[in-house]
Amino acid sequence: MTNLYTQLINHFPEDRSQIVIESLEGEKWSYLVLEQQTARFANTLTRLGVKKGDRVAALVDKSPQALSLYLACLQTGAIYLPLNTAYQLPEIDYFFADAKPRVVICLPELREAISELAIRHGVRQVLTLDEQGMGTLTSEAKTENPTFETVPCQDNDIAAILYTSGTTDKPKGAMLTHENLFSNALILREAWQWTSSDVLLHALPLFHVHGLFVACHCALLSGAKMFLLPKFDTRSVLDYLPRSTVFMGVPTYYSRLVGEEGLSADVCRSMRLFVSGSAPLPENVFYAFRDLSGHTILERYGMTETLMNTSNPYEGPRKPSSVGPALPYVGVRVVNRTGPEGIGNIQIKGPNVFKGYWRLPEKTAQEFTPDGWFETGDLGTIDEDGYLFISGRGKDLIITGGYNVYPREIERVLEDLDGIRESAVIGIPDPDYGESVIAIVVLESNQKAITQERIIAALKKAIVNYKVPKQILFVDELPRNAMGKIQKNALRDRYSIS
Q1: What percent of the chain has pLDDT over 70?
Q2: Is 484 a domain residue?
């Protein structure tokens, strides 16, 4: 295998004048412009001393130039380190200390604070890039050569480091190789039947697996076009859907689209695929979206360390609450099953599985079984058709009075009740039972009269008593990370009684 960048450009259309990116402001980038801008950035990074294997940290907003920066890192053989611009300085300080980037690209308004951290950690250069694609990086690149000789890379060379959320420990840097990224992208392109006629409506951030690797790689490997929205906005998405064919989102996006006036089969007339991931899709949203749009959302399962593992079929039944069968060449198994449901630990094996955690060889070794399977930390079951159902994270398992309670099972029942928009079930310390089950619930806007007593009474008709929450707490919204995942650790911290 060669450098991932070489693999990507080998799949660009022969006619490089074809449009690859159109922005919300109507700015259009051809494949030729993307290739030339990438080369200019690659030459700039090289002039700044970046060599193969060096880390380049990016705290930048979404833009065509931000995508070019990622591609330039691939082209130079550098390791791309995307960071959420919402991170606070102590978090960034930790990432710099751990990853030791050679160059940092950040938002102009962050430069002063980032420069202080950079000096502390020996970072050679700090450049800027704003949401319009302007900044010192772009300025320095203007006079650079629009061609660059791609640095050769091997399958196992690291292409990117993405830090996991670190809910129970310090964040860990997952090392993703050129082979990890290319093999997974090829599998998804085939599984989801991408072609050069596709138009991706891109509303995800570019610092995460879903938006950067799944969405962009699929489009680039297909010679397709992208509408690059700076962020998710329901009105903008509805405006662009009639001109698009593929949309990828997190469950929050679909929940908001369902609640927005204007979603219809006519608006979705040119669409062929809606993909959801990064968090469980509530069944009520699954059915409501299908009723309004005429499309069945395709749910898939992935994680930072493994990229995409399973997917509901493009052609074939898409089961609600399931993330589908294993993708080709990816092994998925459930071990140590317990209880009548057969819930167990989900393990993954395949070319998509990461190289390990940056500078943590002992932690890496702990996460793999003796026969080479990666321990995801997720719990689930596989049905008779091979479809995987996620029950939750292992750390979210609640043990009350000696019984195992899987939050996702209760959340599905809650979200089937009229008037409940979404929910999160957690365990809090209990002196008698060890842990007590509680549910935090968000109601539909017109359902304020629903009470704890009514919900508990309904649950007692649907699930065994030990699974019924002892308390129902009502909130206006649930805490989420940037990818829409509910932060149950934050809820546990808020509601636990020491």
Answers
A1: 98
A2: yes
